[in-house]
Structures are given as structure tokens and as C-alpha cells.
Write a structure and sequence with these properties.
- Helices cover about 45% and strands about 10% of the residues.
- It is of the alpha/beta class.
- The strands form two sheets. It has a five-stranded mixed sheet with strand order 4-5-6-7-8, with helices on one face. Strands 1-2-3 form a three-stranded parallel sheet, with helices on both faces.
- Helix 3 runs parallel beside helix 4.
- The longest helix is centred in the middle third of the chain and has 26 residues, at about 95-120.
- The two termini are about 25 Å apart.
């Protein structure tokens, strides 16, 4: 299951997993995107129409999965929105709350919805698509000072990283691997000024990492194919 699957990294991951012969559950917010995906991929694709920003998504996800499977091998929490303001006198609590709700609470909702299905997998994995900007150690060093990234995005990704750490401490002993990943400096609509990787390449690195991944990597904060980050 891949959230934020209508475009960008999420769409590219759907494409790769489908090409790999997997049954894929792309989570999108509208019927239009669901129809586009089923039209393109024809089979082994079951779109889930839900908004991870709403508690109701848990019921929708469970119901859709129940109709198609009793097992889920991988949950990729990719859904996200971008922030704008990087100066304190312009920051709004609404913007911070909106990003926290999607990036952190959204991931909590999807994990809650899929946990019973992940327990039935032989090699279950949860991957939270984070960002280098969620690293407290890298932020405090001043490494990204020049990027002028929004308060809301950095705060939301740091919170999501803490969720990853807490979740891994609970689920690893139950056989579920949990990781945060930085997908690379992707050239997206909301890309940072130093973006240097196209989305399809970033997706391929993530896909290959998941294919090769061993349980020993659980609990790590990684840019697949490149390096491990400090929290």
C-alpha cells in the first residue's frame, strides 16, 4: 500500500511495484485518480480513495483491504503536503497544524488501519517517507540554513521521525521492520533549491532497497542507495 499515489514519487513507486508483479493498493484522494490508475495498470491494482488527514480513512482502508486480501507486506507512507513560511513573523499555526496532521497523524492513521494485515505477512515492513530536513542533528548543525525551508515542513517531518522511532521500538520484536527514509533531493513541484534527482530515479533506489532489505536495517533513517542519517 502506497499513500500519496496519484503523482510524483508515490505514482512512480506504484508503477515499479506493479511491474514487479505485486498486488498494489495505491491510496488517492479522488475517484478521478483512482480511475486513471485502474485504466493504466488494468489488473493487480486496487485504489483506495481516502484522505490520510481524516480519521475516517482508517475505516475506508480496512474495508478496502478486507475485500482483497488478508495480508499486507509493505506500507509506504508517502503522502505529504508542503509548507511555505520560513520566517517566524509569517508562520501560522494553521499551516503547522495542517502539515503535522498529514505527515505525522496521517502516518499514525494508516499504520493503525493496516496493522492487522501486516501481522499476517512473512516479512512486513513500514516505510515512512521523511526528509533530511526532519533530522534534528543536521538541522542544529546549520547544514540547511541556506534552503529557507518552512517551519511547518521541518517540524512535521521531525515529528514523523519520532513516530518512526517509537513505532519501531514496539513493532520490531513483533517482526515488523520500520524505517524512515529520505528519498533524495527530488525535483518535484515543491523541491528545494538544491534538488538534483529526478523522481523516477529516487523511486528506483527505494524499490531496490526494499527488495534487498534485511531485518537488520529496521529502525534506521536512510537515503536508499546512498547513506544513513543521524536522527
Amino acid at each position: 500500500m502506497i499513500t500519496g499515489a496519484s503523482r510524483g514519487l508515490g505514482y512512480q513507486l506504484v508503477k515499479l511495484f506493479h511491474e514487479g508483479g505485486n498486488l498494489v493498493f495505491p491510496l488517492v484522494r479522488t475517484q478521478l485518480f483512482a480511475d486513471l490508475l485502474t485504466s493504466e495498470f488494468k489488473n493487480r491494482i486496487v485504489p483506495i480513495i481516502a484522505d490520510v488527514g481524516l480519521d475516517e480513512c482508517e475505516t475506508v482502508i480496512r474495508t478496502t483491504l478486507d475485500h482483497s486480501t488478508d495480508c499486507l507486506d509493505i506500507l509506504i507512507n508517502n503522502a505529504g503536503i508542503s509548507g511555505r513560511e520560513f520566517e517566524m513573523d509569517k508562520v501560522t499555526t494553521k499551516e503547522v497544524n495542517d502539515l503535522f496532521n498529514v505527515h505525522c497523524l496521517g502516518a499514525i492513521r494508516t499504520v493503525r488501519a493496516t496493522l492487522q494485515f501486516l501481522y499476517n505477512s512473512n516479512h512486513p515492513r513500514i516505510v515512512n517517507v521523511s526528509s533530511r530536513l526532519g533530522s534534528l542533528s543536521m538541522m542544529s548543525s546549520g547544514e540547511f540554513q541556506h534552503l529557507k525551508t518552512s517551519y511547518s515542513y521541518r517540524i512535521a517531518k521531525a515529528a514523523q521521525n519520532m513516530f518512526t522511532i517509537c513505532l519501531e521500538k514496539e513493532l520490531n520484536e513483533k517482526g515488523i521492520s520500520v524505517n524512515s527514509i529520505h528519498p533524495g533531493k527530488l525535483k518535484t513541484q515543491s523541491a528545494s533549491t538544491d534538488a538534483d534527482m529526478d523522481v523516477a530515479t529516487g523511486a528506483k533506489h527505494i524499490f531496490q532497497w526494499l527488495v534487498d532489505m534485511d531485518r537488520e536495517y529496521s529502525g534506521k533513517y536512510i537515503q536508499p542507495g546512498y547513506r544513513e542519517f543521524n536522527w
